[in-house]
């Protein structure tokens, strides 16, 4: 998990007052660097294919920060069916893509700050305007991540997440 941006002063590695509001995973679970040498596998900033059989799109789980009005986001990977992956690919630069119904997908990023695994949670992938990552909506289960998406979090939770991720 890398913070998508850091607030650090030049003299030290301490985070400033504001912890990052966004973290992302560079690749879906199951991706191995050696796959990039294969013809049937590819990883870009937005899409991934593994061995021509598994297909992923990079999206955002957005969580409202209730006491600041800001939005916290996890950059995650979600698996799509081959048909929906092909459709996502075909419509990538098409402004009409916003009319797409949500695609079903399995969450394919482990967020280590949760006690229970986040792998294979059911999601709906909402296509947004060209240039915007898809919005990942979790199935409304009792998983803490799904609860946080539904109910929002506080700025103290944002700080706690930053601490957990910094400690690794």
Can you tell me about this structure?
This protein has helices spanning 82-90, 144-151, 155-167; strands at 2-3, 22-24, 42-43, 47-50, 54-64, 71-80, 103-107, 122-126, 135-138. It has 168 residues and is an alpha+beta fold. It has one domain (21-167). Strands 1, 2, 3, 4, 5, 6, 7, 8 and 9 form a nine-stranded mixed sheet that branches. 28% of the residues are buried.
The SS-based structural class is: alpha+beta
What's the tally of helices?
Answer: 3
- Large-scale geometry: globular
User: How many structural domains can be distinguished in the coordinates?
Assistant: 1
List the helices and strands and how they pair.
Layout: E1 2-3, E2 22-24, E3 42-43, E4 47-50, E5 54-64, E6 71-80, H1 82-90, E7 103-107, E8 122-126, E9 135-138, H2 144-151, H3 155-167
Parallel strand pairs: 2-6
Antiparallel strand pairs: 1-2, 3-4, 4-5, 5-6, 6-7, 7-8, 8-9
Write a brief structural summary.
This protein has 168 residues and is α+β, with helices and mostly antiparallel strands.
Describe the structure using short key phrases.
alpha+beta; 168 residues; globular; nine-stranded mixed sheet; 3 helices
């Amino acid at each position: 998990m890398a913070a998508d941006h850091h607030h650090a002063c030049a003299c030290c590695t301490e985070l400033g007052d504001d912890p990052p509001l966004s973290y992302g995973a560079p690749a879906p679970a199951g991706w191995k660097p050696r796959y990039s040498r294969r013809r049937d596998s590819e990883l870009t900033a937005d899409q991934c294919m593994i061995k021509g059989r598994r297909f992923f799109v990079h999206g955002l789980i957005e969580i409202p920060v209730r006491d600041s009005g800001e939005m916290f986001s996890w950059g995650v990977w979600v698996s799509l069916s081959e048909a929906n992956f092909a459709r996502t690919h075909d419509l990538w630069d098409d402004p009409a893509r916003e009319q797409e119904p949500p695609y079903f997908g399995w969450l394919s990023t482990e967020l280590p700050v949760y006690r229970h695994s986040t792998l294979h949670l059911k999601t709906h992938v909402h296509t947004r305007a060209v240039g915007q990552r898809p919005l990942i909506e979790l199935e409304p289960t009792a998983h803490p991540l799904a609860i946080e998406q539904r109910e929002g979090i506080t700025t103290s939770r944002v700080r706690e997440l930053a601490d957990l991720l910094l400690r690794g």
